[in-house]
Amino acid sequence: MSNLDPTTMVLVLALGNLALCALLTFFDHGTARPPALGVWALARQVQAGAWTLLALGGASVLPEPLSLPAGFALLFAGVAIEAGAGWEEAGRDGWRRPTLVAGTLAIGVFLACYLVDQGGLRSLAASLLLGALYLNVAAALGAGWAGASLLRRFLAVLTAVLALVVAARGLSVLLLPGGWRWLSSELLRQLSSAALYLLMLANAFGMLLLGRERAGRELARLEVVDPLTNVPNRRGFFAALAPWMALARRPGQPTALVVLDLDGFKRVNDAYGHPAGDAVLRHVVELCRRQLRDSDLLGRLVGVEFAILLPRTRLEEALLVAERIRAAIASSPVKSERAMIAMTASFGVTVIRPEDSTVTLFQRADDALRDAKDGGRNRVSGALPAALEA
């Protein structure tokens, strides 16, 4: 590291950021690039331009009055945008205005110091401002610490430590103007350059790995969630049902199951097209949610058949819930591009019994649903209680 003069280190940072820009250009993002990765790619491009200007100024290719203020202005803007990418990744949508303010303030302070025309003051301002902006990156990565992954936590801590190292040059001038033993200005410069290089690498690979983490979580979610209606699919519903099946073997309040099927749904797809059919399914899910408690669970089993789990609900109460949903569906037609589509649904209702398996439970609910269909549709039918059935 001691063999690298400042001009060479700036050139290394310029080439590194340019290489990362090329990497992102050829990276396969799939059908759509995540917004956070798009913001981060912009930050890398701005920082690549900044380090390139500073490298050209250091090599006397460009005059210093042009390369130095323009290079640092772009650098501060790039790091501010990098913090914005972190806030976007954390799901904080209001990051744009604070990022703009932070970047503009840093540029204004540095330009004021540059106009004073003192090299030491410029170096002090550059170190402190870069350190502060990278601390903002660390704060963005650490947002939602309790629920953050280990990778996000590691990146947040590493970025904060390296940001303090970057700011150490300025802090040493303010706190230790006479120096302190081995802490020389040259050593601080080398440490600051190394920290900037590590920040470039760590945040680059960290952002890509965070993207892979996010994609993995989305794939895991799609295994148990129906992408059209955003409710549990068959696997997700059965996984949530399992503990309630076990609780049914203990004395306590019963748990009810409602199975509903849309009547004559095939005509909707045939007459109005599949987009209209998708709109009907989403509309039905929204109507069901309005009639349910937070503790109730709605899932899409297959096609146009849905199931509703009603914890701590007796059969009579479940029949009333199903009737409210039936009435809401029947009285709320769906507006499509071509027509108002009226829909009805049939319901089968039962409660979980101690001896039930999922097969017997759904068989009984399906039998009640079949009775509602045979009775003329747009009806609610309940399974017989165990005593009457016997």
Set out the fold topology.
Layout lengths: L5 H21 L8 H24 L5 H26 L6 H21 L2 H23 L8 H26 L9 H38 L11 H14 L8 E7 L3 H7 L1 H18 L5 E6 L2 E6 L4 H16 L3 E2 L4 E2 L3 E7 L6 H17 L5 E3 L3 H4 L1
Parallel strand pairs: 6-7
Antiparallel strand pairs: 1-3, 1-6, 2-3, 4-5
Total number of helices: 13
How would you describe the shape? elongated
Rounded Rg: 31 Å
- Helix content, binned percent: 55-70%
Strand content: 5-15%
Order of helices and strands: HHHHHHHHEHHEEHEEEHEH
Query: At the first level of CATH, what is the class of the largest domain?
Result: Mainly Alpha
CATH-defined fold name of the largest domain: Rhopdopsin 7-helix transmembrane proteins
In the sheet with the most strands, the strands line up as 2-3-1-6-7
The total domain count is 2
> Terminal Cα separation, in Å?
86 Å
Uncertain runs are none
Structural class computed from helices and strand pairing: alpha+beta
What is the number of strand segments? 7
Catalytic activity: 2 GTP = 3',3'-c-di-GMP + 2 diphosphate
InterPro entries: Diguanylate_Cyclase, GGDEF_dom, Nucleotide_cyclase, Rev_trsase/Diguanyl_cyclase
Pfam families: GGDEF
Keywords: Membrane, Transmembrane, Transmembrane helix
